[in-house]
Amino acid sequence: MDILSILADSTRSAFGPVAAVYALAAIGLNLHFGYTGLLNFGQVGFMLVGAYGVGISVSVFQLPVLVGFGIGLLCALVLALLLGIPTLRLRADYLAITTIAAGEVIRLIYRADFVEPLTGGVFGMQNLASGFRRFNPFESSARYGFGDITYTGTHLWTMVVTWSLVLVMVGVVWLLMHSPWGRVIKGIREDEEAVRSLGKDVFTYKMQVLVLGGLIGALAGCMMAMHQAAIQPDQFKPQVTFFLWVILLLGGAGRVFGPVLGAMAFWFLMDFTDGVLRGMGSMGWLPFLDSPDYGALQLAFAGLMLVLLIVFRPQGLIGDRKEMLINVK
Amino acid sequence: MSSDETVADRMAGAAAAPGSAKADPILVADGVRRSFGGLTAVDVGHLEVQRGTITALIGPNGAGKSTLFNLLTGFDRVDQGTWSFDGRRISGKRGHQVARAGMVRTFQLTKALTRLSVLDNMLLGATGQFGEGIAGAFLRPVWQRQERANTERALELLERFKLIAKRDDMAGSLSGGQRKLLEMARALMTDPDMIMLDEPMAGVNPALVQSLLGHITSLRDEGKTVLFVEHDMDVIMGISDWIVVLAQGQVIAEGRPSDIRSNQQVIDAYLGSPEEG
Predict the structure, then answer these.
(1) Scanning every residue of chain A, which has its alpha carbon at the shortest distance from the alpha carbon of B141?
(2) Dihedral sign (CA A279, A280, A281, A283)
(3) Residue B73's closest CA among B47, B43, B106?
(4) CATH of range A3-135+151-324; options 1.10.760, 3.40.1000, 1.10.150, 1.10.3470
(5) Which of the four pLDDT bands, split at 50, 70 and 90, describes residue B276?
């Protein structure tokens, strides 16, 4: 088992395009949960409509990729309104129930037979990224990087764009949260009745947040489609949402950089445990397991690490422990 | 001219009877009903609250005081009834619209926004903030001046409520009594005409009660109208200009503290009348 190469692989993953996509989606979730207290268990649904919005636009209708992004975002806007209008006046639990169900329902609809001419049904869509990669300034098959940590030109281009979007969104969130608007939002997280009693229209604020976080999630979905150049409905299962929650809690909810650090740490840990398991397997230390089982064990192992982290550092990597525990004393 | 005399003037001519007319009512409610299932929680025929006075709303447990409070402030929906505030009809309006009209409430279980600083709690109360719009939020130079003015006002209020030393602490670190003070100060940030206090003394240690009472009377002396729900009879008799007694959802008596103290119906309602056993 070569621990150095496992570490190199894990580091590559921590900075790679997938981590960037998850960081982006988690920024949206951070707006929902970390700042406003909205329990969104269907962030994957926003990613899905974003990914398919751009996918269908470029592959079925041959639209330019930027128009496709716009359509993906538009779909997310519609989804957020559909989810928010009936539930945001109710108790927080209703949004949670609705979003988790809606995420699954959307996936089942997009993979259904009757929409196959548009979405490709269970087979999904391919060749989506040519419009995006046309702007790639790097040599697509050359490798860039330092030492063992290198990326292809194609991946590097996706990384540059996605991490740039991450930085822009971090800036947007910082500006918003350091404004009177952000103060109202954080107030709603603490107690929306109190905020209402001071004359703020809580429903409108919650709606704005649901839309904004959903749009950021859809943007992550668009970048996912560009990264993979292909999408399938079954990669948008609820576990994606739960990964995003893990990322958010790991990094620190309600912190501007929490989702970014969380995504990097999460994908580092995922690849690290995978590498270690494979290494142990190849040395015959895991005789009771076949290699397809490693995936399940990897998740369990990552879960264990998270449990330890939450026991010993409940505020996440960069959260404020005192602030976190203020209601628990 | 002492404030007592002016308050007495304001109450002059008001009869000590349920639904009596006031000289200059700020709040007028008619036929307000709310039932939960088969139980009628509130059924108030007519109620007027005189401007610039401290009016107490009292009654035994389950009399509907808090429900009436929630209805009037838009935090619950009525089955029927109308009410107006300062001449404008506000029945059917939502909580935030009622607050904007100038009638601001506090809560029985204090709602300090625990993970916000004391100063941020205060600033949240300021009205008409440009930076509270999602687009305006990005225009820092535009809202910064307003923010400074609001901060100045917030600090003055914190000084007055003796919370100035806590300005940068999380509101969650305050004691129960300090939270009550903060909630009252925060409500004042909205510059209301009428302030509705739901059990302002509940859970407050006796040392702070006097200071809270002082704050309530000084609100009235500044010309604001106070309506409050309270249980402690000494407190009520001590500071109220007018008392409204609620029992089983209905107004059974109204009057000055001296009228209420001797009212047989009120005594029956609290102690249980012999006929009802």
Answers:
(1) A179
(2) positive
(3) B106
(4) 1.10.3470
(5) very low
- B106, B187 contact by CB (below 8 A): yes
Rounded Cα gap, residues A168 and B184, in angstroms: 40
Q: Which residues pair with B29 in a beta bridge?
A: B47, B83
Provide the shortest C-alpha distance from residue A177 to chain B (in Å): 9
Q: Do A202 and B136 touch (CB under 8 A)?
A: no
B54-58 vs B225-229, strand pairing mode: parallel
Output the six-digit token pair for B42: 């509130």
Least CB–CB distance from A198: residue in B97, B112, B186 = B186
Structure token pair of residue A113: 């037979």
Question: How far is C-alpha B32 from the geometric centre of its chain's CA atoms?
Answer: 18
Lay out the sheet containing B25-36: strands in order across: B39-50, B25-36, B80-85, B88-89
Contacts of B173 in chain A (CB under 8 A): 326
Q: Where are the domains of chain A?
A: 3-135+151-324
Q: Go through the domains of chain B in sequence order and give each one's CATH number.
A: 4-112+192-276 (3.40.50.300), 116-173 (no CATH)
**What is the pTM for the complete model shown?**
0.92
**For chain A, where are the E strands, in sequence order?**
143-146, 149-152
Q: Shortest Cα distance from B147 to chain A (angstroms)?
A: 8
Query: Tens digits of per-residue pLDDT, A262-315?
Result: 999 999 999 998 898 888 888 888 888 777 778 888 888 777 877 887 788 888
Give CA–CA dist B114/B172, Å, rounded.
4
**Which tokens go with A243?**
């990964």
B34: left (phi over 0), alpha (psi -120 to 50) or beta: beta
CA B43, CA B39: separation in Å to the nearest integer?
A: 11
Interface probe, candidates B132, B146, B150, B169, chain A, greatest A C-beta count within 10 A: B132
Which among A176, A187, A193 has the least Cβ separation from residue B137?
A176
Angle subtended at Cα B20 by Cα B18 and Cα B21, rounded to the nearest 5 degrees: 160
Length of chain A measured in residues: 329
Residue type, A33: F
Nearest C-alpha neighbor of A54 from the set A46, A45, A63, A43: A63
At residue A328, the pLDDT reads 46
- Which has more pLDDT, A140 or B16? A140
Question: Which residue does chain A place closest to B142, by CA atoms?
Answer: A179
Cα gap B219→A83, rounded to integer Å: 44
Amino acid making up residue A172: V
Report CB contact under 8 Å: A179, B99: no
> Which tokens belong to A26?
């988690």
pLDDT in tens, A117-161: 999 999 999 999 999 999 999 998 899 998 889 999 999 999 999
Closest residue of chain B to A172, computed from CA coordinates: B138
Q: Average of pLDDT values for B35-39? A: 89
